[in-house]
Amino acid sequence: MTAAPGPIDVLAAARGLEPLVTAVVHPCDKPSLAAALAARDRGLIVPTLVGPAERIRREALEAGLDLGGVTIEQAAHSHAAAARAVELVRRAEAEAIMKGSLHTDELLAEVVHRETGLRTARRISHVFVLQVPGFDRLLLVTDAAVNIGPSLEDKADIVQNAIDLAGALGIERPKVAILSAVETVTSKLRSTLDAAALCKMADRRQITGGILDGPLAFDNAVSAEAARTKGIESPVAGRADILVAPDLESGNILAKQLEYFSAATAGGIVLGARVPIILSSRSDSLASRLLSCGVAVVFARRAPAAGP
């Protein structure tokens, strides 16, 4: 009997692809500096460190990190570093942005700036890519970091961004579960109405490339047994590759529970801008940061363009 295939190895998929020239924004602490250099050593990125040069050098010296051969772009403070990183992308001198030791809001404000940012026709959104021990596939959870209370139109872009990423990772026709607390459509829960509308949007090809179903509760999305018990017949139920949360809070809680209670390794990137944005939390492990870089490389080299 043939063994079931395991989950996609993202770092193996990135191996052999051309590394991304990456603007690393304000890497003024050991974790962000060490991650950028480790990703360089793995052949994932070619880092350009953007921030106060003397502070970056001092941090590297104190941490025992070698900056030999690494370009440093001077920027006086974190806000200036975010603006400079975006400028490097606009000038085609960087292919990705990586968050260092600054707040996410500060970085993304420059990314979405109407005149000088990196907007496309698509709304930006965050996707967690989770490697869960014992689970037979990658799980993508969205949106858990950018859109607080997304509208239906926002959710359509959130879903499309995740489908595009799944496709780049080699998941053909990814199965997308639109999550809620129940499996039936009711006006008492807006998330169920949005789920039904998103599925119809997929039917009308307003969302393409994936198979959508919802509303689905979490158990029915990932467990075939739970779906059978509840009598749910669906190509997605029990087989979901992508879990679309109703809002940021529930998505963030879900992803962090998988990380801390199930020992999942979680990589995260922001999509919908001109380039992928590698978004790490200050508490992320080196493994998570490297996974994020690997996801960005695979997406940048294999995904179709999102549009102007």
Keywords:
Rossmann fold; 2 domains; Isopropylmalate Dehydrogenase; 11-stranded mixed sheet; 11 helices; alpha/beta; 308 residues; globular; 11 strands
The largest sheet has its strands arranged as 3-2-1-4-11-10-5-6-9-7-8
Specify the number of helices: 11
Could you say which structural class the secondary elements and strand pairing correspond to? alpha/beta
Whole-angstrom Rg:
19 Å
Please give the share of residues in helix.
Answer: 25-40%
Number of domains: 2
Question: What overall form do the CA principal axes indicate?
Answer: globular
Q: Helix and strand string, N-terminal first?
A: HEHEHEHEHEEHEHEHHEHEEH
Task: Tell me the span between the first and last alpha carbons.
Answer: 48 Å
CATH names the topology of the largest domain as Rossmann fold
**Can you name the CATH architecture of the largest domain?**
3-Layer(aba) Sandwich
Strand content: 15-25%
Overall average residue pLDDT:
94
The biggest sheet amounts to: 11 strands, mixed
CATH class of the largest domain: Alpha Beta
Total beta strand runs: 11
Low-confidence runs (pLDDT<50, min 5 residues)? none
Q: How would you summarize this macromolecular structure in one to three sentences?
A:
Helix content is 40%, strand content 18%. By secondary structure, the chain is of the alpha/beta class.
Explain the overall architecture:
The chain has 308 residues and is α/β, with parallel strands linked by helices. The chain has 2 domains: 1-120 and 273-308, 3-Layer(aba) Sandwich (Rossmann fold); 123-270, 3-Layer(aba) Sandwich (Isopropylmalate Dehydrogenase), CATH 3.40.718. Helices cover 40% and strands 18% of the residues. The protein has an 11-stranded mixed sheet with strand order 3-2-1-4-11-10-5-6-9-7-8, sandwiched between helices. Helix 2 (30-41) crosses helix 11 and helix 6 (152-168) packs across helix 11. The longest helix has 17 residues, at 152-168. The N and C termini lie far apart (48 Å).
